[in-house]
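Handout, section B. The chain below has 184 residues.
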Amino acid sequence: MQVNGFLRTLSVITLVTGLLLIGCADNSPSPTALAVGAGSMDHAMHGGGSAAVVAAVDLTTFTFRASLEPYKIHQLPDFLMHATARKDIVFQRSVFNPGAGPWHTHPGPSFVYVIDGEIKLQRFNKQQGCFETPVHVAGDSYFEVGNEVHRAVVTSATPAVLLVTRFNIPVGAPITVPAADPGC
């Protein structure tokens, strides 16, 4: 039964990753919007909905969360990912309004795809101090480091809409943890 749950979750990961990469696989334009879905599941800054490609940007948020048994994926020559304990994986569509958001951390790493808008991160760690990422625009993707203090800064006049996959989240633990302003 646990193997079936793992395979279902792995299938969802594969589907989401394939959907994210599909724009890179051909010359067709990348999807720029998602349709409004039904339902809601509030969690911190995130709500509920479902997705389908349409002409207008959907600002409805969603969060899907599932637990994975320990795993090791070693895809030669250059990809390795593993978890030695049961952890949650989280899929989200997040919407951030223009301006700077609150400082926070996430307990695990995140892969982010920008659906719409422009966004950068202000980050802080002990090795580098305060620094910023480049501005990411629709069609860009980036990586967030787990347990690093950061905040989103939307530089566009419209909200930034993101598709996020978060890994290595302790089972049932908060996805987003507020952090003190590091003085950046």
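Note. Residues 1-54 have pLDDT under 50 and may be disordered. Compare this with the example in section A.
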